[in-house]
Structure to design on (259 residues):
């Protein structure tokens, strides 16, 4: 019995499985706006253009000072968002393998990724020191709409070319996970349009990652039914574009399929 217990601990640790966290990009933006307003960084962050947001976020990522204190009052939204990061920090302190990735639902632009890095920095999960990023957090964009799938490769190229995010990738072993949404893309564009956009996104993302010499893994957020991206996993893997088939892959398995 002791031998069995030791084997289980070596195999599963004390966490069994790594936990992923998924949060909507809109909540990140609302929290950033509140933090920036209270710290007098910018009073109306959400009104900025994408380029202005990127410039401001990049500058703040390099600034070591926090945006708030432990005594600062938080709104219901910011408390909800930041408390998740605090929980992730506790998990990583207990066991570095207990946490998987932080998934950004409805990733539309570069700012959506940088906002998460700001929030992680605020809680002590991310830092920029002497020109290098130090973090244990994997940040995973989730592309769900047809428009976002079509723009995903150019967005990732912009991210990899960004000074700070490039160092984020380097800090994680030159590795980046990217999630593709099947259910929402089917609802957004219909079955045929969604499948075309997903196939093209896989090809383009694989090409971009290889161009920047980034090791990558595509995470397929599939539903159980055909209309939500379901079907036989082995056929889905075989149908992947060769450029994105690198021996790394993740799928969601729905409860109704397992049952």
């Amino acid at each position: 019995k002791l031998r069995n217990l030791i084997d289980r601990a070596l195999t599963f640790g004390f966490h069994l499985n790594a936990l992923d966290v998924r949060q909507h990009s809109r909540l990140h933006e609302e929290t950033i706006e509140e933090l920036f307003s209270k710290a007098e960084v910018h009073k109306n962050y959400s009104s900025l253009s994408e380029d202005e947001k990127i410039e401001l976020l990049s500058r703040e990522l390099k600034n070591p000072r926090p945006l708030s204190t432990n005594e600062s009052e938080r709104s219901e939204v910011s408390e909800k968002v930041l408390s998740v990061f605090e929980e992730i920090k506790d998990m990583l302190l207990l066991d570095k393998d207990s946490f998987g990735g932080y998934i950004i639902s409805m990733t539309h632009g570069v700012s959506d990724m940088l906002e998460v890095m700001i929030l992680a920095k605020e809680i002590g999960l991310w830092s920029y020191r002497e020109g290098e990023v130090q973090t244990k957090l994997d940040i995973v964009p989730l592309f769900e709409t047809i428009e976002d799938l079509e723009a995903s490769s150019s967005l990732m190229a912009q991210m990899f070319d960004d000074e700070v995010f490039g160092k984020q990738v380097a800090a994680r072993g030159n590795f980046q996970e990217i999630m593709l949404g099947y259910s929402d893309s089917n609802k957004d564009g219909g079955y045929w349009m969604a499948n075309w956009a997903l196939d093209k996104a896989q090809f383009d993302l694989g090409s971009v990652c290889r161009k920047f010499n980034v090791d990558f893994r595509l995470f397929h957020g599939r539903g159980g039914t055909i209309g939500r991206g379901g079907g036989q996993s082995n056929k889905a893997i075989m149908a992947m574009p060769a450029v994105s088939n690198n021996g790394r892959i993740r799928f969601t398995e729905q409860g109704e399929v397992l049952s």
